[in-house]
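Notes from the 1:1 (GR / supervisor)

We went over the backlog. Supervisor wanted to see one worked example end to end before approving the batch request, so GR pasted a single chain during the call. The sequence is below; no edits were made to it. Supervisor asked that the structure be written out right there so they could see what the output format looks like.
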Amino acid sequence: MGAKAKKNPLYVVTNDGKDVEQAEGFFDAIIKKFGLEPFIQVFNSILSLLSDQVGNYGFFLFLQEFVDQVVENLEELKGRIGSIVPIFS
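Structure output shown during the call:
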């Protein structure tokens, strides 16, 4: 029968109300709403480049700490937005 459809899919309106896109979750909705796709692509490229340069355990720990800090900041942002816009909580 295929994948089960989501009960309440999340949609994002962009391009001055001309486009509607389905979002997979909170962060996907924020990325699409504010047009951050190019930024995310650059960020992913930087992370990929850095992960390719891991040559020792010390640099690995640095990279892990950096990624953990980014995730922590995103979770904090989610909490702030969730208190304002209940759909994102």
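Supervisor's comment: The two ends are 31 Å apart (CA to CA).
Batch request approved.
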